[in-house]
Design goal:
two-stranded antiparallel sheet, 4-stranded antiparallel beta sheet, Alpha-Beta Plaits, elongated, membrane, 9 helices, 6 strands
């Protein structure tokens, strides 16, 4: 039951990160939540038989401290520095918070765990909303089906520049040997219409379909 609650919370946080095309997505957050909950549960309940042995004294809080330290290394892997900007801090903090939520569920602190999940989820949503990026920008997700042999990235970057659209993230999914899916996360100024940008992309014969 505790692990199930932890997985539920990890799924909610991870889904938003996956939707935002982040390095640590749904699977990472689910695994972190479930594993931290399991380790904390083992620490709390797994040594009752050993404690009955005279002269043995265990400290369950050590496992909690070790989980926090270990997840710190995992979170560091999601932080990148490009040119003069740093990205991935929100995702790293989300992974760290997910571990804490898993530990909260393991100790039976369900209200605190669910409340923290909601807070983290809302914070991540706000970070990609129009409110956060300014009322003059829109964040848009676009999915492209592309021929696998095509060199399409430079064309997309050039097209974005021509339409004053910023490409925030892109992620590639290999569907099969002939076709792959390219997911774009774009920042579009309010005075720019998306339709001319889409039409410019359609002119490339290597792009099979466009959704978004």
């Amino acid at each position: 039951m505790r692990i199930m609650f932890a997985v539920l919370c990890g799924t909610l946080i991870g889904y938003e990160r996956e939707h935002s095309l982040k390095a640590a997505g749904l699977r990472t957050h689910i695994i972190v939540a479930a594993a931290s909950c399991l380790m904390m549960t083992i620490s709390k309940y797994g040594f009752y038989d050993v404690l009955q042995t005279k002269g043995i004294d265990l400290d369950p809080s050590r496992v909690a401290a070790a989980i926090v330290s270990g997840v710190g290394f995992l979170g560091a892997g999601t932080i990148f520095m490009r040119k003069k900007s740093i990205t991935g801090l929100t995702t790293a903090a989300g992974v760290w918070a997910t571990a804490g939520i898993g530990m909260a569920m393991a100790t039976g602190m369900y209200i605190e765990g669910f409340f923290t999940t909601i807070v983290v989820f809302i914070a991540q949503i706000i970070s990609h909303s129009r409110f956060y990026h300014g009322r003059f920008n829109t964040i848009r997700s676009i999915s492209l089906k592309v021929n696998a042999e095509a060199e399409i990235i430079q064309f997309i970057l050039t097209t974005c520049a021509e339409h004053n659209i910023s490409l925030l993230r892109f992620k590639v999914h290999c569907d099969d040997s002939a076709v792959y899916t390219l997911k774009l996360l774009c920042k579009i100024p309010q005075n720019i219409k998306i339709s001319p940008f889409i039409e410019s992309l359609r002119k490339n014969t290597d792009i099979i379909s466009i959704h978004g």
